[in-house]
Design a protein that fits this description.
mainly alpha
Length: 199
């Protein structure tokens, strides 16, 4: 661990310690710097602000523990991610509570899109899929995953990680593979026409 990483880790630990007794929204950069025994200038040498610090913590503590997923490992990756968050419920509930997920995708969405692309490519093997279709499928499932993660944290993490992870696996597992297998097909309205179709 280099000096910069150690300094960032110390600042991160200070934020986590403060959150144990104080709401995230009420914690200032000055509070974090004082707790870490550094100056505000030193804080800003490492982070743009509190949100940048939170993104770094999430990237190191959660995303950094994941491996590049395949269709055989992505469920385990999700479980590991949720399990780490579950061990620090106060911290993650505080940083997610009251936020609009759509405004705070950050690294969570970026990594999730990358992860689901890896799942799709692993499933398809030698078969080709065009880039727009790949991006569309990966983004669809990534947004659903990230939104579920936010909702779980915001609701107080009442369900254990294994329950939430299995639910995500159940929802994604077959759907993402079917979408990938049929990515090049065109919609056929006649296939869905029935007695309740408009005249």
């Amino acid at each position: 661990m280099d000096k910069t990483h150690r300094s960032k880790a110390m600042i991160a630990a200070s934020l986590k310690a403060l959150i144990a007794d104080k709401d995230f929204d009420l914690i200032s950069v000055s509070d974090i710097a004082r707790r870490a025994a550094i100056t505000r200038r030193t804080f800003y040498n490492h982070f743009k602000g509190k949100q940048d610090l939170v993104d770094w913590i999430y990237e190191i503590d959660v995303l950094g523990k994941l491996v590049v997923p395949t269709h055989d490992t992505w469920g385990l990756n999700i479980y590991r991610s949720l399990s780490h968050m579950y061990r620090e419920p106060r911290f993650y509930q505080q940083i997610f509570t009251g936020w609009d997920p759509a405004a705070h995708w950050g690294h969570r969405l970026e990594f999730s899109v990358y992860a689901f692309k890896s799942v799709i490519k692993s499933h398809l093997g030698e078969r080709a899929i065009d880039e727009p279709a790949l991006n569309s499928i990966a983004e669809f499932y990534a947004i659903g995953y990230v939104h579920t993660l936010f909702n779980w944290a915001q609701s107080g993490m009442k369900e254990p990680p294994e329950v939430v992870a299995q639910r995500l696996v159940n929802m994604v597992d077959h759907g993402i593979y079917r979408a990938s297998d049929h990515a090049g097909e065109r919609f056929d309205p006649a296939q869905y026409a029935g007695e309740h179709s408009p005249e």
